[in-house]
Design brief:
mainly alpha; 62% helix
């Protein structure tokens, strides 16, 4: 039973790796801003738990990371699709305005450089 689940998860992970889903990066580390300090805490926590109990930490973290990326991509895809349908059905096309401008003069060619 456990072997079949592991095979399924391995195949699902390999499909996620070759998909066009953009996953969130780890937070940046810094000391000058709150966001940078939070990034330092998050990265140190991941590193600490990875060293302390890697067998029970990395697998759930990986599953959560992949699930978050897939769910986020699905929600954003549905929102984009809904916006396109709204735009096409409710808004009439707006005519493009063209400014009156003077015709452009043709560019002069530079004379070839003379060596010597």
């Amino acid at each position: 039973m456990g072997g079949q689940i592991l095979i399924f998860l391995t195949i699902a992970l390999s499909l996620a790796m070759v998909s066009n889903v953009r996953y969130a990066p780890l937070p940046r580390i810094g000391f000058r801003t709150r966001r940078g300090i939070l990034g330092l805490v998050v990265n140190c926590t991941i590193l600490g738990f990875g060293i302390w109990s890697r067998d029970i930490f990395f697998f759930p973290l990986g599953i959560a990371y992949v699930s978050y990326g897939m769910l986020r991509a699905a929600v954003l895809g549905f929102l984009e699709r809904g916006d396109e349908e709204e735009d096409q059905s409710f808004q009439p096309p707006v005519p493009r305005l063209v400014r009156d401008r003077e015709p452009r003069r043709p560019r002069r060619r530079r004379p070839p450089a003379q060596g010597g």
